[in-house]
């Protein structure tokens, strides 16, 4: 093992593997890779005493490193209780690791939606590389995943496959017909007749044979009368066909490489009825779609950055019903909680009813912790972001489920420095800051990144404290 102790090495990052020593060096917050031994394939500057190559965290160095150290490649996680910790800035993974290590919860460190990448300007490869560098920095050697989130079109898939993602969240929301939720039977028949039955590889007649019955869910009857069935088929039939289409494309691109697939309809305009959950999963299985998790639209409101909104009794009944359907299908997939951050009332019943078959999906909450840090140690920058967020909110909110009122978010000049951090505890301010991330990063991204470099360890501590609250309820008992 090469002695790198004369360099400002991060001790937890040091790896001796197959005769070469690898480590991350800390240069006033900036990171560099140090390789001592076999340096072929790395791009960097030779260093003497000790003899090593000093490498920037370039894409080619990330690729070479994960070829050398296989545990830095994302893998499928199967039915383990899991948590997706989206990171819009590329700095949060070490904090995520500090929170998740020892919990038994399987992490997805790389997770960004197409929507997020469009807003931040990052590529799927950059997101995965940032997560990998964070895992390397912390000496993480356990399994971790990479989620290509909210894929809507066939064209969305390719760059994530090229980058090496292992978890693919198919979002066929654009094909869900929410009007079917309340349409009369005659209108539903018309809608059903227009579905792509060739892609569904069946007919409505055969569909009626399969589903016009009452399903027994552990003694709990789930009735499918004509109205319920026609509504489910009209509402989700095209979405199921699109999911199967996306799965076929994914299988073509992935070849023999393993992957897992989630179907997410959490952002549609209407709640996913239990009959509809049953119909969706049954049809996806019939079509051979390899489902590892499913994200229905639950009762109540799952809004960004805040706890559940609605009747907890109704939610518990709803979760119990979804879990009964999962048991009917042999507990062969997980229930995915999108917009899952800060939903502290949801985790215990979700874990209880599904017996741990939960995937928790978070993202913007790590961005909010960065803003909490700024509100504490870089107040001028935070004030600029707050002012800009208040200007952008009405536009940026259009593609997210939020209900914050701008008039409840104080202007910067109404607050003392000491009051600024409390905004990150206030419902409306959290949502206004959350959904304006793209606009804010466009204008302040470089300044925010410099601040995070200056305050990395503090940021990790903010992330750890926040995610321990999320992960404790998911710990395997
Ligand atoms: O903000 C986004 O686009 C995504 O990170 C989220 O919608 C994600 O799918 C999620 O549900 C976690 O908040």
TrEMBL record:
Residues reported to bind a divalent metal cation: 150, 304, 338
UniProt GO MF annotations: metal ion binding; racemase and epimerase activity, acting on hydroxy acids and derivatives
Annotated EC: 5.1.2.7
Catalytic activity, as annotated: keto-D-tagaturonate = keto-D-fructuronate
Catalytic site: 149, 262
Class of this enzyme: isomerase
UniProt keyword terms in alphabetical order: Isomerase, Metal-binding
InterPro entries documented for this protein: UxaE
Pfam families on file: UxaE
Domain of life: Bacteria
Cofactor(s) it depends on: a divalent metal cation
Functional description taken from the UniProt entry: Catalyzes the epimerization of D-tagaturonate (D-TagA) to D-fructuronate (D-FruA).
Family: Belongs to the UxaE family.
Protein's name according to its UniProt entry: Tagaturonate/fructuronate epimerase
Organism per entry: Ktedonospora formicarum
